[in-house]
Amino acid sequence: MSSEISQRVAPGSWLPPAVWRLEMSALAFAAALGASAPVQAAVPCTNGPTFNLTTATGNISTPDGNSVFMWSYRNAAGAAFQVPSPVLCVTQGQTVTINLINTALPEPTSIVFPGQTGVGTIGGSPGLFTSEIGPGPGTVTYRFVANEPGTYLYESGTNPHKQVEMGLYGVLIVRPSVASNRAYTDPDTLFDTSQQYLLLIHDIDPFLHQAVERGQTYDITAKHDRYWTINGRSFPDTILPNNDPLLPEQPYGALVTVDEVPCATPGSGAGCTPAGGVANRPALVRYANAGLSNHPFHPHGNHLRVIARDGRLLAGPGGAGIPAIAAMEAFTKTIGSGQTYDLLVRWINEQEFDPTLNTVPVVIPGLQNLVFKDDVTVYSGSPYLGFQDELPPAVVSSNDCGELYYPWHSHALNEFNNFDEGFGGLATLFRVEPTGGCP
Amino acid sequence: MRRSLIPRSLTRRRFLWGVGQGALLASLAGNRMAQAACDPATSPCQLRLVATDGHFALPGRTQADAATDPVAQEGPLYGFGFSQGGFGDSISALTAEHKGLVQWTAPIIAVDEADELFVTMTNVGFQYRPDLDDAHTIHWHGFRNPVALFDGVPEVSIAVPPARDFPYFFPPRLAGTYMYHCHFEDVEHVQLGMDGVVFVRPEQNKTGNGAGAPIARLGGNAGSPVLGYAYNDGVATSNARSTAYDREFTLLLNEVDPRPHDNLMAVQEFVWSDYKAGYWLINGRAYPHTLIRNGDTLGEEELLVNEDPTGQQGPDGSETLRQPISSLIQVNEGDRVLLRLVNLGYDQQSMQLASIPMRVVGEDATFLRGPGGADLSYVTNTIYIGPGEARDVLFTAPAFTGTGTPDILTGAPYNSHLLKNRNVHTLHNNGLTTDGLGGQVTEVWVYPSGTLPAIDPTNPLDGPNRTYISL
Amino acid sequence: MRARATRINIALGFAAFVAAGLPFAAPAQAVTFNLCASPGTVTMPDGVVVNIWGFSTDDGGCAPAQLPGPVLIVEEGEGVTVNLTTNTVGEPVTLEFPGQEGVAVTGTSYTFAASAPGTYLYEAGTNPGIQIPMGLYGALIVRPAGSPGQAYGDPATAFDVEQVLVLSEIDPELNNLSNPNTFDRTLYNPVYWLINGEAYPDTDPVSAPPDSVLLLRYLNAGSMHHTMTLLGLRQRLIAVDSDPLVDAPNPNLSLDIVSHTIPSGQTADALVDAPAAPGRFALYNRQMRLTNALPSNPAHFPGGMLTFVTVPAQLFFATVANTTVPGVLSPFDNADIYAWSGAAFARVLDGTGVGLSTTATIDALLVADFDTFYMSFATDGGTTVPTLALVQDEDIVKYDAGTWSLYFDGSAVGLGDGGGEDVDAFEILGDGSVLISTRGAPTVPGLVTPPSPQDEDLLHCVGTFPTPGTCMWSLYFEGSDVGLSTTAAPVDEDIDGVAVSEVSGVDVYLSTVGTFATSTLSGESNDVLVCNDATTGPATSCTSFSLFLDASAEGLGGNIGALDLP
User: Chain A window 280-319: which residues touch B at a Cβ cutoff of 8 Å?
Assistant: First the structure.
């Protein structure tokens, strides 16, 4: 789906590529950090089981200063244009009804629900994948019973090669009926409900969006991505909080924050037994790939435990769920187009590195002899979780309380960019706070 | 004089005149080392990695293909990378020895589980782009790193500027295959070549297990029938789920889009979202170079690069070998073979060994066993591996059949099994092919039982990716 | 173009159903296939002809090259010999059998033991960068010994029907070179995306009976990965690259998934539980490779790597009143069109969704496609149809993917405005001529009387449609000849629904306004009866009668007022 650069001419209305080699990203990064450290984002739900959605068009911002025209679904009741579409949350067993009106698009649209069975429609006209609606005042209704908990996509079933690219996608979360602090029925899927995160991935060829905006020919065969988003934002915008006023059309952040799981007996040193109970409760991360490409998503610093795929626990029909069968630790996960995964993550400070009790066995050089990229950082100045130390005078740090940061990003490193600016694109940060969190 | 790639430049016939029987790789002055050696060879392991730039050879882009103008885009390709220096050397000594002479891919690092690893990385700057003051880092990918300072991501820790070094510390605790790479402007630095394989040997090598697996030769047991284990599998070697092996090979996959490399030499920018691969490599080489064995000086002649950018183009005695890691897999029938596959390119690949089934026992340094003991390993003929992923793959070399092909260098007969990227549209070198192939292709040569000697870890030649030019 | 793989004991077509219990010949110890590799062509949906090199069977002569090659089916444990008897592609071709061990090669003869059940590719081993894009690949299926109807010798892998899905791509710039080896490989850019050698809309649907288990055998013969999504149903992954996830006594590791990436060269097997009700479920490439060639091409979208898992309808119908149809979402409307699979019901057209008012009533219909319908309405004063204003009850309109048109103008062919000449049943025959029945006794020009046509008759209108149309009228079916003539409540044998099957002989499917009784069969207004092996014309006869749908036995009340066969 690639094309030679000679066929592409950046439109004059756009900012030219950065003059300084890979430095613009730092200014964006600094802007994202501001004067305070990033705040965690959690999954914002629109609760069902009945939803009224309409179509909308608008623009999203990219960190390199560009603007991309998008199509999306939004909540009908007075909500603004947003990308991605709203996160719809229901409880297992509910009958989900989605009423869709299409007033904003120049062509019919629809919604399909990959992973759901027994989806019926009321109204609408027959379309290739499902019943479609509009443009106009009419409504099409989709109805199904959410039988199985999990993370699912919903997206357009009309001209999907265009409409899904344009932004008509979102996530449907089905909570298990047995308890809202489990990802699935199985008690081993218990998670810390204050640490539930969604990473909804998408890829964008801005020239295709421009063609739609201008009513020109849409050529999916020439798709060549320049922007990659998580929850509708490109890094470093992904680390801004939900509903950040800088990004009114992109209300969902993607920063993943956990507290460390300390040793059961603090001070017991390397190889300690982790504390149990609530302190040991993992965060839940839901991956979903609405993009048209597969993306190899790589978290730094820690394995995650993959517990489910496409809304089903990784356990055979006879299995008792994790840890009995097939859940396993994983680092990089290539998330296929249209796939979802559910993962649990803890950060266990097994080594208990500490400035007095267990120092790192190397002499860290003076920081003035090292480079802090573009003099902007989130580093605390100290290698120890929970501690801060002096940084060289020119360096600006947004570190809060000695928390650690690790990037989580696509390992197709050409996707770790915003067009031509480095350290952007399909990435977010994992933030590990010392026990008790930052004050 | 330009040499064309087809058909003369690297057919098997040329191996007939192979020389260098028993020549040690290190004897070629300035040549790079395939495997990093702990310096000194004691525990804990200490390594010195040097970050710099240099040139590399690809089919169609060899030293002999270069035009008179060294900046023209026809000779060896420009890149960055890591090579190994002396742990106690001064920065100026390392600069004199390594600047502009870096290797592809970076040295293979092997370390034992529960041993600590100290890697001091020294940035000696760029020989060919002295105007660039890029810093470098080392990121050990896939490793549970409790100290972000050692994770190598500049924006959330530090980076190492030219003429400085930094002591990285890794306490490896989990066996498996990982990779390491620079994370400073990584889309560029990784593509330019700052990639290598690192793997951790399981404790079971040193202890065996009570279930019928002896201490391995890599654990110090010289007479052991097992060279090593991939994981702490806890089962007898006779068990189908054993991860015991007799020979091991690392295969680091990546791609090259020649444009950013040539652009950098020409002091030009590159728009990274324009990325499109034109070469596909295993261990830094493209087929047919993947088959060249260590010490085969005639074959290695293809790979030699003149270290002096203003020097003559063509052989003048000062060339060095930049790509010391072969991908040829030579085994005896019945050998248990471990392939450590790593992908540091930007595309997903499908590596197919059509005639030998492979069992994937580990992914991303995670042993494929469920928490309750369920066996999650799987058998396939095609390994699907995405960027940033690793696979530990075991196969048993099938029986030698027929009369085989006589090995040009050793004389011993072998059966050849092709290991190729099944994304067949990648089987070329920027449009050029040799016998219809190019890119990520290598071969498994199966000899009759007893042909190749057993791997002896005390022999400095017997590291991973061991090749034989004489018997 | 789709030649059959011939083997000593069994010949099997390409898109075959294999029902459980299909008797296999006693497995032979050894089986031989003779294949040719030869140049040929395939035609894409836009009419572009693409050169291929394809395998085909050699039955004492090469069948035309096919894409993909013939499906080879063997049994676990058999010794298999594949002879490449003829090669006319112009360069050496060798065969490769990924997943088979110990393949012995003697000249152009390949011998191996099919040691493990599964889904495998066979393909070119030489010059793969050209020969595989040119089309030299096919599927090899190994059945588990002694376990017919199972994919892997485990009951959890049992299936009722199966479908081979060979995925691949075509770059016509490569294939159509006179010497493909001169292609500049840096420019490889496929624009056709294929399932079993075809691009949508030429892909075959994957048909499964209601409540059956369907086995999808994916093989990626292409040179890039493809992620396949199934909408509306789940697929249970039971094997990857023929390594079963169901392998008792090991734990069952099969995965119930939505999308699966099949990398190039790999295969995958998945089971799908087909529902009871009729439906079509998209099975498609989630990289959205759903186009043919470039946007300028009229067949551009929908196209590509797309097909539908289909539980076929046995019957389409509309109800006289707003009858509840079991298993279907309310509200119910007599301007909706429903389908019956033989086991359950579904709605295929929502009348108000396409702009008909809630007072519209369909009293005759024909379903041409998922988005193409012909209908006639019951209201004597006219029915409002979008863009057509008022449509009379003697007219037939066509809805085609959002566009309404007048297909049959009743008054132009002699049907009057009165309610008696309301078309309340119609069919379009294979030759394009039209059958109708009316609410009362019609008078049409040129129809010889006696006998006068009645409401229980079918009139045949031979002409050209859509409008303006004229026709030659004749009597096609005389109801009274076969015992349908009574109108005395509750009996009313006025035909109000008709469909004709011309597959083998002529079978006439009918519905009546009230109850009916022929010489051998009686039933209700919502039943569908069949006049089997009919002799049509003024001396109508039926070899026999049968009941095709006993609606009340299926939970359907009310009265069927329009019907069609798929």
Answer: 294, 296, 298, 300-303
Q: Which residue of C has its CA nearest to B376?
A: C253
DSSP B353-395: ETTS-EEEEEETTEESB-TTS-B--EEESEEEE-TT-EEEEEE
Residues C282 and C373 in one domain: no
Residues C125 and C212 in one domain: yes
CATH number of the domain encompassing residue C134: 2.60.40.420
Q: How many domains does chain B have?
A: 1
Number of domains in chain C: 2
Q: Is C333 in the same domain as C415?
A: yes
B329 belongs to a structural domain: yes
With a CB-CB cutoff of 8 Å, which residues 27-56 of chain A face chain B? 29
Residues C331 and C279 in one domain: no
Question: Residues of A numbered 399-418 whose beta carbons fall under 8 angstroms of chain B's beta carbons: which are they?
Answer: 404-407, 410-417
* Closest residue by Cα to residue A296 from C225, C315, B315: C225
HEC string for B164-230: EEEEEEECCCCCEEEEEECCCCHHHHHHHCCEEEEEEECCHHHHCECCCECCCHHHCCCCCCCCEEC
Q: What is the CATH number of the domain that holds C476?
A: 2.120.10
Q: How far is C259 from chain A (nearest CA, A)?
A: 6
d(CA A56, CA A102): 8
* Mutate which: C224, C237, C253, vs B, most B CBs within 10 A: C224
Touching B: which chains, 3+ CB pairs < 8 A?
A: A, C
Which residues, 6 or more positions from B117, have their beta carbon under 8 angstroms from its beta carbon?
B44, B45, B47, B109, B111, B169, B170, B171, B172
Are C356 and C420 contained in the same domain?
Answer: yes
Cβ under 8 Å to A: B residues 393-412: none
The per-residue pLDDT for range B442-457, each reduced to its tens digit, is: 999 999 999 999 999 9
Residue B107 lies in a domain: yes
Q: What is the CATH number of the domain that holds B63?
A: 2.60.40.420
Check residues A358 and A8 and name the one with the higher pLDDT: A358
Contact between residue C84 and residue C33 where contact means Cβ atoms under 8 Å apart? no
Angle (nearest 5°) at CA C260 between C101 and A255: 130
Per the structure, the complete domain to which residue C502 belongs is given by 315-564
Nearest to C133 by CA among C165, C79, C162, C170: C170
* A81 contacts A68 by C-beta, under 8 angstroms: no
Mean pLDDT of B318-346: 94
* Model pLDDT, residue B319: 77
> Given CB atoms, is A122 within the 8 Å cutoff of chain C?
yes
> C266 and chain B: CB distance < 8 Å anywhere?
yes
Instruction: Mark whether C29 and C105 lie in a shared domain.
Output: yes
For residue C174, what pLDDT is reported?
98
Rounded-to-integer distance, Cα A271 and Cα A260, Å? 15
The answer as to whether B300 is a domain residue is yes
* Strand partners of residue B199: B110, B177
pLDDT tens for each residue of A179-218: 989 999 988 889 999 899 999 999 999 999 999 999 999 9
- pTM for this entry: 0.93
Interface mutation target, options B138, B253, B262, B271, chain A, most CBs of A under 10 Å: B271
Residue in chain B nearest A366 by alpha carbon? B166
Nearest to C251 among A138, A219, A319 (CB): A319
Q: Is the pLDDT of residue B1 over 60?
A: no
pLDDT confidence of residue B330: 98
- Residue closest to C269 by CA, chosen among C283, C254, C281, C284: C254
User: Where among C255, C280, C311 does a domain terminate?
Assistant: C311
Q: Are residues C207 and C223 in the same domain?
A: yes
In terms of domains, do C302 and C362 share one? no
Pick the last residue of a domain from C283, C311, C339.
C311
The range of the structural domain enclosing residue B10 comes to 5-201+246-447
